């Protein structure tokens, strides 16, 4: 914990302390820029550097030439999007904070916890220091959004100020929600959890109702998808959401200002004023959260209830170790060293999976419902392919962030993993086994339900089950190979992480598009070369074997990346 005395967290340090913290932020920013430039020139990162430069060139060219040629968006509509969208994102974050069992602090690194949290610095100064770190990320996001929205506004400078202030207030509001939920008692958290979930469910039902009302029954599924985006915009523009978006109203109006008036300067002043107001709210909420947690700790010590909680945790830990012991006994039966070592690593991972099994199950309920949602449309011939497409999208985009129980979680334990007498292939298989099993269970359950409804035939079931399973293996192997080649800390931010996220998304989109193109080409080849009686068998066999060969190659690549991982160079400083 980063505090000293909770009652002192509501007061401010002298200006000298804030100047020193600001100087520390500047020095750290300079160090990160120098480190980034060094990495860009590194031969080990030549591919990443080339892709980053190409991405920026294409992005700016797309913004200048392509986006400038499109029809400008209605300023009133854009204003409602900029304000209401912030509320919807904050609602999502509130649901996430309520349902997580992790109590998060101000999201500082271990070095900051040691040198700042243990020093004579008040909590208000630490909060302001963390906000200073947010500013850099907000500047980069503002630049990306400004390139996209430049053709929709009259004053580019006001767009920059409005978007920047909105993003900063959003990030500070996210911290306020995070610290506020951390200070709640168990009963209060449960009440808030179900209340917020009910509100989020009502918003989702509102979106669904607007989609059904705006799309004729029996329309193609892609029209439902387009209506879904429009429905989200309509919900963001509703009166209720706009009342909740009062902190962002001035910034949104400032961004879409057409004519400079006296009201424009008032909106500018309010937009900038919301930043210190939100910082003051963060400091107050953080002080209340610290005091509430401190008071509950004293109550637990007095009534000795911590002993019962300790017994519950011990029982849960014992169950986790019983599960891991079963996996170890099962592994000892194998004669293959590769499989046996991998299963021992699976036993290590099973402790985390057993502890967070409720969160994992809940994380995949929503993707399952989204993938099965095309079954509610009237186009029977299209339902199966949209379900399969939804499974592929969830496998590549949602499953890796939700199941970070592989190398991406173990960056701080790399020295321990490297010291184990385990072959690289066994290490990769052991790290990826449980995330893959969970993803495959999600895929198979969804496919079985869709197949029972649509009756696509066994050729379609075998084809897409085999290819989607290979896609899951490829996705997790590629994610971990990329992480081992260019590792980063769990809460890392900045321009490097932004470029990484954009390139990863574009890479996954390219993989999906290339796979569909190759599948169509293979279908044409089979139709022209193979006899009609063996056409389907050849098509399914070739498609499944090819995807599995690519998946196996990705696993081998991940093993090679683990073999070349250098503790002295590849682990980035915090």
TrEMBL record:
Q: Which UniProt keywords apply?
A: Membrane, Transmembrane, Transmembrane helix
Q: Which domain of life is it from?
A: Bacteria
Any transmembrane segments, and where? 46-68, 80-99, 131-150, 156-173, 194-213, 265-285, 358-377, 383-403, 424-451, 457-484, 505-525, 537-562
**Is Plastid tagged as a keyword?**
no
Task: Report the protein name in the record.
Answer: Uncharacterized protein
Q: Which species?
A: Stieleria marina
């Amino acid at each position: 914990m980063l505090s000293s005395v909770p009652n002192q967290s509501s007061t401010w340090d002298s200006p000298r302390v804030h100047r020193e913290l600001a100087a520390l932020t500047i020095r750290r920013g300079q160090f990160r820029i120098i480190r980034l430039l060094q990495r860009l020139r590194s031969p080990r990162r030549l591919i990443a550097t080339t892709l980053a430069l190409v991405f920026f060139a294409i992005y700016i060219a797309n913004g200048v030439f392509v986006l400038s040629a499109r029809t400008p968006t209605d300023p009133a509509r854009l204003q409602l999007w900029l304000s209401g969208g912030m509320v919807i994102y904050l609602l999502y974050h509130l649901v996430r904070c309520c349902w997580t069992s992790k109590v998060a602090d101000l999201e500082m690194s271990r070095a900051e916890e040691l040198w700042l949290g243990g020093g004579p610095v008040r909590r208000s100064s630490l909060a302001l220091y963390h906000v200073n770190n947010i500013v850099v990320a907000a500047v980069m996001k503002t630049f990306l959004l400004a390139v996209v929205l430049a053709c929709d506004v009259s004053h580019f400078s006001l767009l920059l100020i409005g978007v920047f202030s909105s993003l900063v207030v959003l990030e500070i509001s996210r911290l306020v929600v995070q610290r506020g939920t951390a200070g709640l008692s168990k009963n209060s958290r449960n009440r808030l959890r179900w209340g917020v979930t009910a509100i989020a469910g009502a918003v989702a039902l509102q979106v669904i109702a607007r989609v059904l009302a705006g799309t004729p029954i029996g329309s193609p599924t892609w029209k439902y998808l387009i209506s879904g985006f429009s429905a989200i915009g309509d919900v963001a523009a509703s009166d209720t959401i706009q009342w909740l978006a009062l902190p962002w109203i001035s910034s949104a109006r400032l961004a879409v200002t057409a004519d400079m008036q006296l009201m424009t300067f008032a909106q500018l002043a309010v937009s900038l004023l919301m930043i210190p107001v939100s910082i003051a709210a963060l400091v107050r909420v953080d002080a209340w959260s610290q005091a509430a947690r401190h008071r509950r700790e004293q109550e637990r010590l007095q009534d000795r209830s911590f002993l019962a909680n300790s017994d519950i945790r011990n029982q849960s830990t014992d169950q986790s170790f019983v599960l891991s012991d079963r996996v170890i006994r099962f592994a000892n039966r194998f004669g293959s060293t590769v499989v046996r070592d991998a299963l021992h690593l699976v036993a290590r991972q099973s402790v985390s999976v057993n502890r967070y099994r409720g969160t994992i199950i809940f994380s995949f309920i929503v993707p399952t419902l989204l993938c099965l949602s095309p079954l509610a449309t009237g186009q029977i011939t299209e339902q199966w392919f949209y379900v399969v497409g939804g499974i592929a999208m969830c496998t590549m985009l949602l499953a890796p962030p939700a199941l970070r129980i592989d190398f991406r979680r173990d960056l701080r334990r790399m020295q321990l993993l490297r010291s184990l007498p385990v072959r690289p292939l066994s290490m990769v298989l052991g790290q990826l086994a449980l995330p893959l099993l969970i993803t495959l269970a999600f895929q198979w359950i969804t496919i079985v339900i869709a197949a029972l409804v649509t009756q696509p035939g066994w050729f379609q079931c075998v084809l897409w089950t085999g290819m989607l399973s290979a896609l899951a293996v490829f996705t997790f192997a590629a994610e971990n190979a990329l992480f081992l080649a260019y590792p980063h800390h769990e809460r890392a931010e900045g321009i490097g992480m932004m470029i990484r996220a954009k390139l990863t998304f574009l890479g996954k989109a390219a993989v999906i598009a290339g796979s569909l193109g190759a599948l169509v080409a293979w279908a044409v080849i089979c139709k022209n070369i193979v006899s009609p009686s063996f056409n389907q068998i050849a098509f399914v066999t070739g498609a499944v074997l090819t995807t599995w060969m690519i998946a196996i190659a990705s696993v081998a690549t991940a093993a090679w990346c683990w073999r070349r991982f250098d503790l002295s160079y590849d682990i980035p400083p915090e």
